[in-house]
């Protein structure tokens, strides 16, 4: 699912080290390098466009406050992505009353391993359109598992649900995608399901 990620501009280690020392120029470089990537993640997780800029601001506030905890010998991108996703999840938890509630009854249907292969045949805009139509509960779990490579346990902790509920929601999201691929005149793509 790498195709729906926006390119991440690598931030040099020396810039991060300067930012840790509170260099305002380094803060600006990090912001300009990482804001488009952060915004693309926020758009995937948060359906309300009115909240996007506020969350982006919260992401960078959190980033700059916790930058001194970053191990500069490691890759910055995964650490930064977790900050963005965590801020999105915090926003969703805070605004849970506005979220659509999806029934969490267990499902026994097994996932079809061809779904990702079928989705790779779609354009980025087609995938984004499909994901934007997916119910919030399904979309959040699907993106965390399929796109951002979280485990069901990690998803459970982030969304304050059990790992079993995460598995169930993920299977339901995959089934939702299959159904909508077929109903949106993508029948040739869905034949492998």
Explain how this protein is built.
With 193 residues, the chain is mainly α. The protein has two domains: 2-98, Rna Polymerase Sigma Factor, Chain: A, CATH 1.10.1740; 115-190, Winged helix-like DNA-binding domain superfamily/Winged helix DNA-binding domain (Arc Repressor Mutant, subunit A, Orthogonal Bundle). It has ten helices and no strands. The model is unreliable at 1-5, 98-111 and 185-193 (pLDDT under 50).
Largest sheet: none
Quick one: CATH class of the largest domain?
Mainly Alpha
| Shape field | elongated
C-alpha Rg, in Å? Answer: 18 Å
pLDDT averaged over residues: 81
Strand fraction band?
under 5%
Order of helices and strands: HHHHHHHHHH
Low-confidence stretches: 1-5, 98-111, 185-193
| CATH homologous superfamily label of the largest domain | RNA polymerase sigma factor, region 2, helix turn helix motif
Helix content: 55-70%
Q: End-to-end span in angstroms?
A: 18 Å
Characteristics of this structure?
193 residues; mainly alpha; Rna Polymerase Sigma Factor, Chain: A; Arc Repressor Mutant, subunit A; 2 domains; 10 helices; 66% helix; 0% strand; disordered C terminus
Can you describe this structure in just a few lines?
The protein has helices at residues 13-20, 24-45, 49-66, 76-94, 115-119, 124-133, 136-147, 152-159, 163-183, 187-190. By secondary structure, it is mainly α.
């Amino acid at each position: 699912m790498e195709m729906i990620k926006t390119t991440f501009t690598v931030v040099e280690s020396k810039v991060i080290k300067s930012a840790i020392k509170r260099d305002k120029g380094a803060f600006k470089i990090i912001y300009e390098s990482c804001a488009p990537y952060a915004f693309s993640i926020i758009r995937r997780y948060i359906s309300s466009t009115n909240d996007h800029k506020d969350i982006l601001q919260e992401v960078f506030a959190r980033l700059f406050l916790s930058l001194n905890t970053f191990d500069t010998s490691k890759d910055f991108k995964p650490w930064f992505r977790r900050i963005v996703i965590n801020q999105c999840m915090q926003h969703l938890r805070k605004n849970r009353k506005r979220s659509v509630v999806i029934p969490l009854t267990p499902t026994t249907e097994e996932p079809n391993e061809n779904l990702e292969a079928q989705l790779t045949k779609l354009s980025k805009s087609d995938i984004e359109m499909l994901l934007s139509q997916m119910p919030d509960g399904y979309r959040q779990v699907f993106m965390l598992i399929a796109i951002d490579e979280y485990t069901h346990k990690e998803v459970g902790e982030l969304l304050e649900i059990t790992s079993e509920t995460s598995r169930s929601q993920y299977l339901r999201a995959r089934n939702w995608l299959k159904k909508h691929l077929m109903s949106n005149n993508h029948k040739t793509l869905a034949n492998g399901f």
